[in-house]
Amino acid sequence: MVSLERKKEICWEVNRYKALGITKSCLNNSYIIKDKEKIIFDPIAVKDEKADYIVITNFLELEHIKLSKENKYIVTKFGKEVIENFGEYDYLVIGYGDEFNIGETNLKFYCTDFYITSYWLEKDILLSGELFSQYEVIGSSDTKEDFRKLMEELKEHYANILLPHREDILKLLEDFKNLEIKKILPSHGVCWEKYIENVFFEYKFWSLGNYRERAVIVFISLYQATELIAKALKEGLEEEVEVRVHRLNFSKVTEVMRDLLDAKYLLVGSPTINNDIHPKVKFFLDYMKKLNPSSNKIAVPFGSYGFESAHYRLIDLLSELEFKVVYDDILFTKFIPDKSRLEKIKEFAKKLLTLDP
């Protein structure tokens, strides 16, 4: 008798977010198939469980790598190098497209260097590991959760965890098209059954670097000058496109990345402080650069200063991301901008809508 069991564990602080000073919870999932042999997919939610095989689905985060001398681990070539750092363990190295049998159960592996997804041929179930995961969703199935909330969390997870791997994900998605997937079982969050087509569409959309008619304004302000510029830009843009505004002294960088993922416009504002841009703005730009977002965006720097402007630093940092950088001296204001200047800034924003990345 073949059986499938799901083990769940609530994690109140995701380590990746905790390192950024952000509190984020998630639901961790492990899946156990019992046949002639027993196999566990991702040991993240099990404790001291014995099995014939354990599939380590994620080789980049230690919470997914729980090792015991009593088990045999299914790993990628890169995963083999990872677990060898922890000592001598029994493992089986698999490659892309390899098949594996544990009795009546036949599995096919689709993997990158860092992640393993497994397809259960008889049941048309994709055990997807890190792919299609969501944080902050403590539920069982997508049929019982709010669709908008699910997609926001799916998007945030992709933008902050999987974005650097988008080329590998495109290859996986191309092969998944040929499978009759009835259910997706990820390592975090709900299992997908009702919205599988939506999930695949969005993953491909994000991985291709496509954009929607949306603008994201990110800034920090000390004496309202930069804030006034941000408001004028918003007023000029929102007549035609959706605008999301993030103040970096309140918003989380992970939420900014979520909104930026498929936005066409990125507008970044900073006051000059100690002859440089604000450190929170600098941190955000560095964080974004490491995630390697699509260059298919229009970037606009803006800001304010008292004596000497550091706007050139903002322009340089945005240019390093290979965005199409559009700027004008009107966007960099000495002290508080007057009404006349703010009107000109608003008109600049309207003209921005005619441009393509």
UniProtKB/TrEMBL annotation:
Residue ranges constituting the Flavodoxin-like domain according to the UniProt record: 215-353
Molecular function via GO: FMN binding
Pfam families: Flavodoxin_1
InterPro entries, alphabetized: Flavodoxin/NO_synth, Flavoprotein-like_sf, RibonucZ/Hydroxyglut_hydro
Ranges that cross the membrane: none
PROSITE patterns named in the record: FLAVODOXIN_LIKE (PS50902)
Designated name of the protein: Flavodoxin/nitric oxide synthase
Lineage start: Archaea, Methanobacteriati, Methanobacteriota, Methanomada group, Methanococci
